[in-house]
What we know:
145 residues; alpha+beta; SH3 type barrels; two-stranded antiparallel ribbon; PRC-brl_dom; PRC-barrel domain-containing protein
Amino acid sequence: MKSKVAALVIMSASLGMLSSHSFAQVAGAQPLGVTVTQSTDLILGWSVKKSILNKPVYNENGEKVGVIHDIIVAPDRSVSYAIIAANQFLGVSHHDVAIPVEQLDYQDGKLILAGATKAAIKALPVFEYTKVKATPTPRAEYPHH
């Protein structure tokens, strides 16, 4: 299930980069957008906005331990961390922490962070946006492309 959460986040992050226009798929041509195979993947995928962002996170005992406020995409464009608000009041976060996406699971319709408690999350270092780039690295500057 952990790979499903990671795949959901990666696929949903990719959706934000796609155009809302639809194009006819022509054999041997690749229009801007997605291929037929990729379209199928999109249809079968999940949306970060609808399925993850601002959704509660529970531990394996069903206790709510936080809310997912953001997803961090690494320079290589992989989804790396979920930003979880351990404490919030009226939707305003008071203690955000970064949790590796691999630690999250999806079970029985809920996002699960095994072994977590509110106290354990509050004890983690606070995540600070000032240390995170606001814009992605251009593909040409990334060594793997």
